[in-house]
Design goal:
The structure is a homodimer of 703-residue chains. Chain A has 703 residues and is of the alpha+beta class. The first copy, chain A, contains 26 helices and 14 strands. In chain A, 53% of the residues lie in helices and 9% in strands. In chain A, a hairpin with a 4-residue loop joins β2 and β3. At the A-B interface, β6, β12, α11, α12 and α13 of A face β6, β12, α11, α12 and α13 of B. Chains A, B: It is an enzyme of class 1 (oxidoreductase). Chains A, B: This is acyl-CoA oxidase.
Chain lengths: 703, 703
C-alpha cells in the first residue's frame, strides 16, 4: 500500500482527471445555477424526528417575552429569565422527559430537541431551564427512586423549588471523582452530614445558587462506617421560603460573567449540614439505617460512570444548541453577504461580498460543517432517546453514547464560537452591534466549551476509548502484527468501533481507488482517507504507548503526557469522521435530484475541507501526493465554492429561521434596500447629466 | 535545489542528529531548570524605547478611577469613560504628539506607546481617547494647516470640543474612497454644502457621535466647479452647547455593542449643512474663493493615500494594544496554570496544569507569538516615529510603514482574540467570570479585527505590495527567468523587499544547510524556510496572475478573485516573517547568558511553530521531507515545550504587569492558597489515622 501511495506518486493533474468538468469557477457557478434546491423539503428533513417538538419550541422562542433584551442590569436579566422559566411551566414546556404520572411523556429525545431550540430566544433561558429540569430535576429522576420522585419532582417541575446542581467545586471541575465535599452517615441520627472541608471544596458556578435556589442536588463523597464509597448525590434544602440560607449553608454570588448573565451562578458551602438518610438519591447506591452500603453495581468505577452517564443529556443539548446558533449565525452572515456590495471588480458596479472567493472560503465551509453537525446531532439525539427510553439500553449502547457525546460536544461547541466569530467579522462593523446578535450569542456560548466537561478533557476520554477498542481488537496479536499495522497497513481490520454506527466497511484496495479518475470528489475515497487518518493515528499511538505497561506509574504517566496532544488531535479526527459519516448517511436518504446534487457538493466540501485542514498528516504519511493535495484545493476553489455559492441562500433558508427567530436587522433585507437606493441615486444622477466629473477623467481629457 | 530537498530525502532521525541532546522531555526540563531568566532586565528591554511614557501611562491605568467596572448600564459606562477622558486631560496625558505651542512634545512614538497602555485600564478608555486625540485631533493636525491648528486644536485637546471622526459610512467601511457623502463648494456663499444623499451614506459607528460629540471631521467627496476631487476632510460643528443637533445635522445611536460600551458610537447624516470654505482641512487639497482646486500632490490616487496615511497611527496603536492584551491574558493563564492542579499523573498528588503537554501546547506557543508581536511592534512604532517626526519621512518610508501596518495589525488583532480565548478556556469556569477579565477584554477587542481597516482587506493591500515589488524586480526579466524562479529557485534574488528592514540576506545553498546537523533548530534554516515560503508563493501568484494584463477588466478581476484566498494567506505568511525577523533581531541584542538561551528557545518555538502550522505547504513544495517535518514536531514536544515551561513564569513576569494592572483574582495567588490548604487538609487527615478507607482499597483487602 505504501508503494501505491507514495509521495512521489504525483498522479495526473485534476484537469485531465475531470475532462467532463467545466473549466472556470464562473462556468461552475453558471451550471450550478440551473439547479434548484427544495428548501421547504430540506427544511423539514433537517428538523428531523422531533420536528413537532422543535416547532412548538420555536413558537415560544418567537414570542418577545422569551427573548433576550439588551442593556439589562445583572439583577434585571436574572429576574427576566426566572420569569421566563415560569412562563415555560405555564406553557407546559418542561415536562416532556418526565414520567406520565408527573404530567410528562417519557419523551427524552423530543424534550432535548425542544429545549435546545430555546437558544434562539436567549441562551440564558436555555441554560437556566437546563439547570432546573435537565440537571436538578433530571438528577432526582435518574439518580433517585420512586420515593424521591414523589417527594421532590413536583416541586422541581413546577418551579416551586428552584434547584441547583451542586457538582462542580472551585477546586474540581471536570474531575468530578475528586470532589472534596463529604457526606458522612450518622447512624445515631439516621442523617447525612454534608460538609465542606476547605475553600477549594466550595461548590461553584452553580446556576440558581446565587439567588433563586431553594434546594440543591449535592454531589459528595459518601462515607459510612469509615469507608468512602465515592461520589453520590444528595438532596439538600438550602434556602428558606424567604430566600435566606438555612443553618450551616453559606454561599457567594459568582457575579457578572462573560455571558449567560440571566443565570444566577454562585457558590455554596456546607458546615455540617444535616439531611435525612433518605435524602441520598440511592438508585445506584443505598445505605441502610445501620449504615451498611449496597449498590446494584459492584464496581466503584462502573457505578460512578453509570451515575454520571445519566446526565449525558447536558452534552447532547449543548451539541444541539451549538448547531442551532451556528445556523443562525450563517443565516445572518450569508443573507448579508448576498446583499452587501463593496469594492469593484472590473465593472462600475460594486461586487456582492459573497462573490469574493475569500468570503466564500470564510462562510461556505462553515455552512458545510453546520450541516454535518446538524445531521450528526440528529443521530446522536436518536441514540440518546433509544438509551433513555429503554428501547436500546445496554451497557454497550450507554458506553457508545458517552463516547459520541465526548466526541461531538467539543467539536460543535468550538465550531459555534468559530462560526459566530467569522459571521460577526463578515458583517464588518455592523456585526459588532448588539442588534445583529452575533456578539451576544458568542459571549453566551463561550462557556459551552468548558462546562458539562471541558472540551480537552472530553476528547481525552474519546482517545482513551479508541485505544481501549484498539487494544481489545489486538489483545491477542503479537508485536509483529502490531508493527505491521502501524507501518500503515489498513486492511479489513477496521479498529474504529466507536462510530454512530459500527464502522464495518472494508477499507479495500486503497491504492487503486486513490488512482482512479475523479479521486478527489469520490465518496469512498473521502471515507477511506478520513477513516485511515483515525485508524493509523490510533495504531501509532498504541505502539508508542505500549511500553507504558512495563513502566512505573510515574513513568507511564510521563509517557502518556508526551503524546497527550496527539491523543487529543486523534480524538478530534475521530469526531470529524463521525460527523462526515452522519452527513453521508443523511445524504443517502435524500431523493435523487437537484437538492441531492447540491447537498453532495456540500458534503464533499466538508470532507475535502477536513482533509485539506489536516493535509500535512496525509502528506507525511504518504496518503496523498503533493499534486493530489493541490488538486483537492483547486477542486474546492474552482468547483465546490462557486457551485455552492449559487445555493447558499437556499441552504440557509432550509434552516427555517423566521424573522422572529433571526431578529437581526442586517439579515432583514435592509441592506438590500440601502444598496438599491444608492444604486438608483447614482443611476438618476448619471442620467441627469449633472453628475460631477471625476478629477481623473478630467485630467485624462486635458492631456 | 529541488534535488537537495525532495520529499523522499528523509534525512537522519532527529535523535541521531542531536547526539548532544538530552533524551526525554523531563530531562530537557531538568536541564533547563538550571538556567535563570533575568526577568527584571528583560522587563526593561520589552518596555523599549518609550519605557518612560509606558510607565507613566501604566501608573494612570493602575488607578481605580481609570479602570473598567462591571455591570454598568450603557449610559453609566459612557459617562464614566467621558469622565476618564477629562481626567487624562487633567493629568497632561493627551498632548504628547502635538506641537510644543499646544503644550505637546512632538513625541509621536511616545504618544502611541502611552496611549496603547490604557488598554490595561479599559479598552473603552483606550479607544475613546483614540477617537478624540488620535483621530479627531490628529486629523486636524495632519490634514489641516496652522490656521486650523489655531482654531480647532485647543478645543479638541482640552476636550472642550469632543469630536467624531466621520469617515466610515453604513455603506462603505474599508473602501473609504467610495464614501458617498458630498461637500459641494458654493462660490457665492464661500461655503461648503455637506450632504448625505441616501441612507447608505450615513456616517456610522463613530465614537462620540451618539452623545458627546460637538464637532466632527467629516470625510466627503470634494466637488467644486462640477469636478469631484475625491475624499477630503471637513471640520463640521454638529451639536450646540446644550447637546442638540445643529440645523441640518441628524443622527442615531448605534446602541449596545458587543464590547467597548464606554464609547457612544453613533450615526450622523447631513442635509445641506453649510460650513465656511476655510473649514476644509486643506493641507493636501485647497480651494480658492473662486472655487479653483489646487493640491501639492497632483496624482489623485497618491493624494488620497497620503491623506489616509497620516492616520496610520490607529493601526499602530491597535497592534500595540493587542500585544498588551495578549500579555495580560498570558500572565493570567500561565500564573493560574502554574498553581492549579487537576487529575493525577502516577502519584497521589494532582498534577499542575502547566505540566500537561496539552496545556503547554495551548499556552507556550502563544507566549512565543506574543514576544514576537511585542518585538515587531517596537520596530513598527520606531518606524512610525521616524516618519512622523520627520527623521525619515520619505515616500518610500511612508509606503513601507503603510505596508507593515497592513501586515501586522491583522495578525496581532486576530492573535489577541485567539490568545484571550485560549486563556479564558485554560481557566475553565473561572475564566468565564467577569472578575478574571478575559471575557470582557475579548469582547472589547473583537472589533479591532474589522475597524481601522478590515483585516482581510488590509492583507490584500499587503499582497498587492508584494506583487508590485515582485513585478518591479522582474520587470525586465523574460518569461523563462520567471518560470525558473517559480519552479522554486530561491537564489540571491530575494524579491521580498517589504520587511521591517530590507531582506537582503542571501538564501544560499539551501540544500546543504538543510542537511546539516541540528537543522530544525538552526536560525538560518528557519529564516530560509520562512522567507522561501513568502518568495515562492509571491512568484507563483505572479505567474498565475500574469495573464490578467491581457484580459478584459472583468476577466482580470475574475482571475484575481480566483486567487484571492492565496493572496491573503501569502500576505499573512509575510507578516509572520516580519514578526520572526523582529524577534530574531531583538534576540541578537540580548547579552549572552541564560536569558538569551531561553529567549532563543522561545524564538525557535515561534519559528518552528509557524513552519508546523504551514507544514502542508512545505511538504507539497518539497521544502521539507516527511521525516524532517516529524522531527520539527518532536523537537517542539521533546525539547522546546518542556524547556520553556520551566521559565514560563519568568517570561510573563517580564511583562511587568503589577497586581493593579492584572486585577484578576485567579492570577493573584489565591489558587495557590486554595491548593495549599486542600493539600494540608488531606495530609493532616492521613496523619490522624481517621481518614475514611477507600472502597476500592477495602475490596482489594477483602480478596
Amino acid at each position: 500500500m505504501e508503494d501505491a501511495m507514495t509521495r512521489t506518486d504525483a498522479g495526473p493533474e485534476l484537469a485531465t482527471e475531470l475532462p467532463d468538468e467545466v473549466s472556470t469557477p464562473r462556468d461552475a457557478a453558471t451550471d450550478s445555477a440551473k439547479l434548484e434546491v427544495d428548501a421547504a423539503w430540506l427544511g423539514e428533513y433537517l428538523l428531523g424526528r422531533w420536528a413537532e417538538e422543535r416547532k412548538a419550541s420555536r413558537a415560544l422562542a418567537s414570542k418577545p417575552e422569551f427573548q433576550f433584551v439588551g442593556d439589562l442590569s445583572l439583577a434585571e436579566h436574572r429576574e427576566r429569565v426566572l420569569a421566563q422559566l415560569r412562563l415555560l411551566v405555564e406553557n407546559d414546556a418542561v415536562h416532556r422527559a418526565f414520567p406520565v404520572r408527573f404530567g410528562g411523556g417519557d419523551n427524552h429525545g423530543g424534550n432535548i430537541a425542544a429545549f435546545e431550540e430555546l437558544v434562539l430566544a436567549d441562551p440564558s433561558l436555555q441554560i437556566k431551564s437546563g439547570v432546573q429540569w435537565g440537571l436538578f430535576a433530571a438528577a432526582i429522576l435518574h439518580l433517585g427512586t420512586e420515593e424521591h420522585h414523589e417527594r421532590f419532582l413536583p416541586g422541581a417541575l413546577s418551579l416551586e423549588v428552584p434547584g441547583a446542581f451542586a457538582m462542580t467545586e472551585t477546586g474540581h471541575g471536570s474531575d468530578v471523582a475528586s470532589a472534596a465535599t463529604t457526606a458522612t452517615f450518622d447512624e445515631d441520627a439516621d442523617e447525612w452530614v454534608i460538609h465542606t472541608p476547605f475553600r477549594a471544596a466550595w461548590k461553584d458556578y452553580l446556576g440558581n445558587a446565587a439567588l433563586h435556589g431553594k434546594a440543591a442536588v449535592v454531589f459528595a463523597q459518601l462515607i459510612t462506617k469509615g469507608v468512602n464509597y465515592g461520589v453520590h448525590a444528595f438532596y439538600v434544602p438550602i434556602r428558606d421560603a424567604d430566600g435566606a440560607f438555612l443553618p450551616g449553608v453559606g454561599g457567594e454570588d459568582d457575579g457578572l460573567k462573560g455571558g449567560l448573565n440571566g443565570i444566577d451562578n454562585g457558590r455554596l458551602h456546607f458546615d455540617h449540614v444535616r439531611v435525612p438518610r433518605t435524602n441520598l438519591l440511592d438508585r445506584y447506591g443505598h445505605v441502610d439505617p445501620d449504615g451498611e452500603y449496597s449498590s446494584p453495581i459492584a464496581s466503584p468505577g462502573r457505578r460512578f460512570f453509570t451515575m454520571l452517564g445519566t446526565l449525558v443529556q447536558g452534552r447532547v443539548s449543548l451539541d444541539g444548541a451549538s448547531t442551532l446558533a451556528s445556523k443562525l449565525a450563517l443565516h445572518i452572515a450569508i443573507t448579508y453577504g448576498s446583499q452587501r456590495r463593496q469594492f469593484t471588480a472590473g465593472t462600475s458596479d460594486e461586487e456582492v461580498l459573497l462573490d469574493y472567493q475569500r468570503h466564500q472560503r470564510r462562510l461556505l465551509p462553515r455552512l458545510a460543517q453546520t450541516y454535518a453537525m446538524s445531521f450528526a446531532h440528529e443521530e446522536f439525539l436518536d441514540l440518546f432517546d433509544q438509551v433513555f427510553s429503554g428501547a436500546s439500553d445496554t451497557p454497550s449502547s450507554r458506553e457508545d453514547l458517552e463516547t459520541i457525546a465526548a466526541a461531538l460536544k467539543p467539536l460543535s461547541t468550538w465550531a459555534a464560537l468559530d462560526i459566530l466569530q467569522e459571521a460577526r467579522e463578515a458583517l464588518g462593523g455592523s456585526g459588532f452591534l448588539a442588534e445583529n446578535r452575533l456578539t451576544q450569542l458568542r459571549a453566551d456560548l463561550d462557556v459551552y466549551a468548558t462546562f458539562e466537561g471541558d472540551n480537552n478533557v472530553l476528547l481525552q476520554l474519546v482517545a482513551k476509548r479508541l485505544l481501549t477498542d484498539y487494544a481489545r481488537k489486538f489483545a491477542k496479536a503479537d508485536a509483529g502484527a502490531l508493527a505491521q499495522y502501524v507501518a500503515g497497513q489498513v486492511g479489513e481490520a477496521a479498529v474504529n468501533r466507536t462510530g454512530l454506527r459500527q464502522l464495518a466497511q472494508t477499507v479495500a484496495d486503497f491504492g487503486s481507488t486513490a488512482r482512479s479518475v475523479g479521486f478527489v470528489r469520490d465518496e469512498d475515497s473521502q471515507r477511506q482517507l478520513l477513516t485511515d487518518r483515525v485508524h493509523t493515528a490510533v495504531a501509532e499511538l498504541a505502539a508508542k504507548l505500549r511500553p507504558a505497561s512495563k513502566l512505573s506509574a510515574v513513568d507511564a504517566a510521563a509517557l502518556f503526557n508526551r503524546y497527550q496532544n496527539d491523543l487529543i488531535t486523534t480524538a478530534r479526527a475521530h469526531g470529524e469522521l463521525l460527523q462526515w459519516e452522519a452527513f453521508t448517511r443523511a445524504l443517502a436518504q435524500v431523493p435523487e435530484g437537484d437538492t441531492r446534487q447540491v447537498l453532495t457538493w456540500l458534503r464533499d466540501l466538508f470532507g475535502l475541507g477536513l482533509i485539506e485542514k489536516d493535509l500535512a498528516w496525509y502528506l507525511v504519511h504518504g496518503r496523498l501526493s503533493g499534486k493530489r493535495a493541490e488538486a483537492i484545493t483547486a477542486y474546492i476553489d474552482d468547483r465546490l465554492l462557486p457551485r455552492i455559492r449559487e445555493h447558499a441562500l437556499s441552504l440557509v433558508a432550509a434552516f427555517g429561521l423566521t424573522p422572529e427567530l433571526v431578529r437581526a436587522p442586517n439579515a432583514s433585507g435592509n441592506e438590500q434596500r440601502r444598496q438599491d437606493e444608492a444604486r438608483a441615486y447614482y443611476a438618476t444622477l448619471r442620467a441627469s447629466g449633472e453628475a460631477p466629473v471625476d478629477e481623473k477623467a478630467l485630467k485624462a481629457a486635458k492631456r
